[in-house]
Amino acid sequence: MAARMKKADEAIAIEMGSGNVFADVELPDAEKLRTKSGLVIEITRAMRRLSLSQVEAGRRMGIPQPKVSAMLRGDFASMSERKLMNRLAYDIEIKVRQFASV
Question: Which partner from 21, 40, 42, 91 sits 20 to 30 angstroms from 85, CA to CA?
Fold first, then answer.
């Protein structure tokens, strides 16, 4: 077996995340990516709730099916937050709050 199993007494290092995986891996524009990913999650939930295919969802959102597919796979960097919000056709409420001290 090529992979070595860890012994039970070996310590495993655990690092707490910041709550933003994009910042944790030091991507530029991490907050924008976090916002966009949340919007895409809501679009995905709406598609499931309405039982929409990618073609039907694309028609409703005004984008072609390949763009819907790319968005659902996480390729949404080229889409602005405003475009994603408009795609939802929801009322958007943005709350700003201070993070609790850790």
Answer: 21
pLDDT tens for each residue of 11-59? 888 888 888 898 999 999 898 889 888 888 888 998 998 899 999 988 8
**pTM strictly above 0.70:** no
CB 38, CB 82: distance < 8 Å: no
Domain ranges of the chain: 30-88
